Description:
The protein is mostly helical.
Amino acid sequence: MISEKMAKAINEQINKEIYSAYLYVGMAAYAGGLGLGGIANWFQLQAKEELGHAQKFMHYLSEQGSDLVLKAIAAPDQKFTSVAATFDKTLEHEKEVTASIRDLVTLAKKETDYATEIFLQWFVTEQIEEEVSVSDIIQKLAIGGKMGNSLLMLDKTLGLRK
Ligand code: FEO
């Protein structure tokens, strides 16, 4: 059994993961509206991954005999100025999620809650991957931007994500 404080923090993280999915669905719609189906595909899969993260946390709460407490999901900002801006926002958001996971690990350590600490290791590794993949896209857009046609090439590449 985990502490009430830890269960509350995990419930808050579940809200953040579902918000992340919401944010990326909005970005997928924006890219889709521009006719960039590949980029829309990438964001849709990103959203799906976020729901998967939320489910992992929900499953863990259940395993620990703690209650799932669902709160309202905030509406994300859907006004984007460019595709590059959506990826910049994505990286900024993922850095916030990384910090949030770090806070959970810190709490688990403070409470000598080894089970939760071990459970969180998967998310620590996942956040490294999340930040790297988005940084890579931002870098490609910046390089491609100097050569022209970068958005269409990126759209083709991101359309391959499964
Ligand atoms: Fe669930 Fe993108 O972090």
